[in-house]
Amino acid sequence: FGAAMDGLALPLKEAGALELGRAVAAVHWHEASGVLVECEDGGVIHADAVCLALSLPAMRSLRFNPPLPASNRAALSQLALGQVEKVFVTLERVGEDTSNERAADTQGFASLHLLWTDRPSAEACADRSSWPRNL
């Protein structure tokens, strides 16, 4: 995943349009000429737009000028930290027949459901034929 992101970021880095690894102290986002970012090292970055990738605690401690709208502040205060697990799975093609959704998705890869929005029925849980194996 890192190599793919590096490849996508390279043209932006070469054009001087991407800044990585700088600790941000404040974002002034209604500047007439765009956005002004104050860094903790004393540096200042001027940009047309900014995309911040921050942890939740870092986002909460960041100063915004002017302050974020009340709806954004309320949403930010409602977010919670939780445990996230990453599962890396190598899938093999199961064949050309993709008509059986339980066996394969539209690309011929075995289906692996990691998130359910409905509670499965007792019968569906008892039918273990579609459960992932050999992960």
Automatic annotation (TrEMBL):
Short name of one Pfam family:
Amino_oxidase
Q: Which SUPFAM superfamilies match?
A: FAD/NAD(P)-binding domain
Q: Where is the Amine oxidase domain?
A: 16-127
In Gene Ontology terms, what is one molecular function of this protein?
oxidoreductase activity
Name recorded for this polypeptide: Amine oxidase domain-containing protein
Recorded source organism is Coccolithus braarudii
